Amino acid sequence: MSQDIENSITQAVLAKAGQGADPRIKQISQALVRHLHAFIREVEPTQAEWKAGIDFLTRTGHMCDQHRQEFILLSDVLGVSMLVDAINHRKDEGATQSTVLGPFYVDAPPEAPLGADIAGSMRGAPLLVQGSVRDAATGQPLANAIVDSWHADESGFYDVQKLESFGGLCGRARFRTDAQGRFHFWTVKPSSYPIPDDGPVGDLLKAQGRHPWRPAHVHFMIFADNHSTLVTHVFEQGDEYLESDVVFGVKHQLIAPLEQHGAGIAPDGRRMTQPFFRLTYDFALAPAQSQQAA
Could you list the residue range(s) of the whole structural domain that residue 47 is in? Predict the structure, then answer.
């Protein structure tokens, strides 16, 4: 009897999963069943191992709240986030390369004027971020494009991880490009940091013999009318974790130097009484039809 079920169960479930009217749901459901059943047949888990897997997913869900998304972390460290990203940007030729969103994006961040200092109570060496946004097909600047940016501080923490000690959101803001598609703002230099590893994803990394570290980077999400939204990071050149990013998010095009400057007049005209760093990066957005074609 047990052998009969082992041989027939997959087809029985596939038949049930294909009864819905939506063809896309049918496709996804049946593919999920096929691959999940194939996984079970390959590893032949014990009852105790299967229960441990269910417990792991349950704990992952319990770790999720408005400030932390453990399932995004799980997707990231398994390389799934980067695979989904790659599939959805096959046609974005000439555009700045994308990478993972990460678990610390905040919808509708506070808007700030160009040149603002968004560091708030974050600590670190001053960092001037300058860049531009253009159309990847024509090279024309994109005025009034929305640039969301966020990052960790010198200790590797994001504002949402320490809201009480930071006194609220900081190290993140939304800007709008000028008539030439340019933007700039001040903040503090981020550092490499470990992803939160005090939950089930951290347990998984330890079991796999992996470290939890990400190289230093600044996040960007850029929107412009009639263009595909860009989600990306710019990584600090020379960081020790560029080749072993725990979420597999580094692409060569996204690595840039953080130039160190002495005290004096900064490129945006601000007088600096201490040394500072400067990050310059220009972004190109694919026309919207590229994403639709993909």
Answer: 2-63
- The beta strands (E) that lie in the chain are given as 126-135, 146-151, 172-176, 182-188, 193-194, 213-214, 217-223, 230-236, 255-256, 259-261, 264-265, 271-272, 276-285
Q: Which amino acid is at 80?
A: V
In this structure, what are the phi and psi dihedrals at residue 47, rounded to the nearest 5 degrees? Answer: -60, -40
Check whether residue 85 and residue 55 sit in a common domain.
Answer: no
Residues 194 and 237 in one domain: yes
Report residue 51 as tokens.
């229960």
pTM of the model: 0.89
68 domain-assigned: no
Choosing from 63, 82, 100, the residue where a domain stops is 63
Evaluate whether 29 touches 18 at the Cβ level (below 8 Å): yes
207 contacts 190 by C-beta, under 8 angstroms: no
What is the pLDDT tens value at each position of the chain, 294 positions in all?
567 788 899 999 999 987 877 999 999 999 999 999 999 999 999 999 999 999 999 999 999 988 788 999 999 999 999 999 999 888 777 999 999 998 889 999 999 999 999 999 999 999 999 999 999 999 999 999 999 999 999 999 999 999 999 999 999 999 999 999 999 999 999 999 999 999 999 999 999 999 999 999 999 999 999 999 999 999 999 999 999 999 999 999 999 999 999 999 999 999 999 999 999 999 999 998 644 433
